[in-house]
C-alpha cells in the first residue's frame, strides 16, 4: 500500500515526464520548420521547371504575332500619312495652276505646272476710259506699251488691299493673258508668239509695269481675253517621282524657282538659276501621274498614284490614289 509521500512522488515524476515530452515535441516541431524553410524537394523543382517551360512556349507561340501586327499597323499608318500629305500638297498646287499649264511626261514620273499667285481684270483698250489699258493693237513703242492698270482692288500690300503677302505681285513674276496651252497662246512657248510678259517692278498702285509688251507682237488675231482677265505666274513647279523598280530607295521631290522652258517634261532643272527643292516622301516603290484635258469644256482631271513601303518591314506596301479636278477656263 502506497503512502502519501509515494503518491506525491509519482505525481511529480509524471509531471516531469509530461514536461520532457512537451519539450521533445516542441523541439521536433522547430526542427521540422527549419527543415521546411531551408529547401524543397526534387519533385517540386521538376514541377516548377515544367510550368516555366509551358509558359515560355505559350509566350513564344502566341505573343510575337500580335506584337508584330501592332508594329506593322503602325508602319502602314505612318506610310498612309506620308502619302496622303504628299498628295494633298500636290493637289493644292494643281488647284493653283495656270489654266492649261499642267503637263505630264510620257512615263508618268514628271508633272509640271505654272503656279499662279493672283489675277484680276485688266483695263482694255475698248473700255474707253482714262488710264493705262493693256495694249494689243495700238502699240507705239513708248512706255505706255509696257504698263497697264488693274480694274478693281489695289494690288499694293497696304492696309486697304485684300491681297496677302503671298499674293503680292513682285518683280520677276509673269503676267499671262488667255492661256490656251497651245500656239499662239501657250505660256511655255514664246518662240514665235508669246502671251506672257515679265513684271519689271513691284507695283505700288494699280498699275503693273512690264519689261516688254509681247502682246502687240502676236500675229492676227490677237489672243485677247474675252473677259479681260489675266493671271500672275510666280514660278514653274515640277514634281518628280524617282521610284526604284522593286526597290525602296525611291523619292518624291518638288522643284520650283527655275526657268520656264518650252519642251515637255522632264525639263532641264539646271537651266538658268538653280532650282529649289523639297523632299515630300521617301521609301517610294512607284508612282504615276496622268492628265486628261477636255478642252471643249475647259476642264481637266489629274490622277495621282503613289506606292510606299517601309524598308526591312513586313508591313507591305501602301498605295494611295487621288484625283484632282482643275478648272482650265483661261
Summarize the biggest pleated sheet.
11 strands, antiparallel
Mean pLDDT: 85
Instruction: State the shape.
Output: elongated
- Head-to-tail CA distance between termini: 144 Å
Low-confidence stretches: none
As a percent range, the share of helical residues equals: 25-40%
**Radius of gyration (Å):** 43 Å
Order of helices and strands: HHHEEEEEEEEEEE
Strand content: 25-35%
Structural class: alpha+beta
Number of strands: 11
The number of helical runs is: 3
Describe the protein in words:
The protein is of the alpha+beta class and 330 residues long. It has a domain at 72-114 and 235-327. The chain has helices at residues 4-37, 42-62, 64-95, and strands at residues 103-104, 110-122, 147-151, 174-176, 196-198, 207-209, 229-242, 250-256, 276-294, 299-308, 318-327. Strands 1, 2, 3, 4, 5, 6, 7, 8, 9, 10 and 11 form an eleven-stranded antiparallel sheet that branches. Strand 1 and strand 2 (110-122) form a beta hairpin. The protein is elongated. The chain starts with a helix and ends with a strand.
Amino acid at each position: 500500500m502506497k503512502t502519501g509521500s509515494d503518491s506525491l512522488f509519482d505525481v511529480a515524476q509524471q509531471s516531469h515526464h509530461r514536461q520532457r515530452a512537451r519539450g521533445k515535441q516542441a523541439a521536433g516541431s522547430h526542427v521540422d520548420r527549419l527543415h521546411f524553410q531551408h529547401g524543397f524537394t526534387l519533385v517540386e523543382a521538376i514541377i516548377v521547371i515544367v510550368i516555366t517551360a509551358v509558359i515560355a512556349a505559350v509566350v513564344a507561340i502566341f505573343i510575337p504575332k500580335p506584337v508584330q501586327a501592332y508594329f506593322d499597323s503602325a508602319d502602314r499608318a505612318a506610310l498612309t500619312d506620308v502619302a496622303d500629305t504628299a498628295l494633298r500638297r500636290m493637289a493644292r498646287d494643281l488647284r493653283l495652276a495656270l489654266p492649261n499649264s499642267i503637263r505630264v511626261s510620257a512615263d508618268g514620273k514628271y508633272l509640271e505646272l505654272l503656279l499662279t499667285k493672283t489675277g484680276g481684270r485688266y483695263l482694255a483698250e475698248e473700255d474707253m476710259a482714262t488710264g493705262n489699258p493693256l495694249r494689243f493693237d495700238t502699240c507705239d513703242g513708248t512706255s505706255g506699251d509696257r504698263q497697264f492698270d488693274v480694274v478693281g482692288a489695289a494690288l499694293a500690300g497696304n492696309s486697304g488691299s485684300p491681297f496677302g503677302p503671298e499674293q503680292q505681285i513682285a518683280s520677276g513674276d509673269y503676267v499671262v493673258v488667255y492661256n490656251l496651252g497651245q500656239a499662239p497662246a501657250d505660256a511655255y512657248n514664246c518662240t514665235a508668239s508669246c502671251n506672257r510678259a515679265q513684271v519689271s517692278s513691284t507695283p505700288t498702285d494699280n498699275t503693273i509695269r512690264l519689261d516688254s509688251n509681247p502682246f502687240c507682237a502676236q500675229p492676227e488675231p490677237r489672243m485677247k481675253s474675252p473677259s479681260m482677265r489675266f493671271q500672275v505666274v510666280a514660278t514653274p513647279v515640277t514634281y518628280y517621282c524617282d521610284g526604284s523598280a522593286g526597290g525602296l530607295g525611291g523619292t518624291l521631290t518638288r522643284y520650283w524657282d527655275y526657268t520656264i522652258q518650252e519642251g515637255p517634261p522632264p525639263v532641264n532643272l539646271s537651266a538658268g538659276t538653280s532650282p529649289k527643292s523639297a523632299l515630300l516622301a521617301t521609301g517610294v516603290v512607284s508612282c504615276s501621274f496622268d492628265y486628261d484635258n477636255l478642252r471643249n469644256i475647259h476642264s481637266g482631271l489629274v490622277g495621282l498614284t503613289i506606292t510606299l513601303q517601309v524598308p526591312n518591314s513586313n508591313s507591305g506596301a501602301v498605295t494611295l490614289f487621288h484625283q484632282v479636278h482643275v478648272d482650265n477656263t483661261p
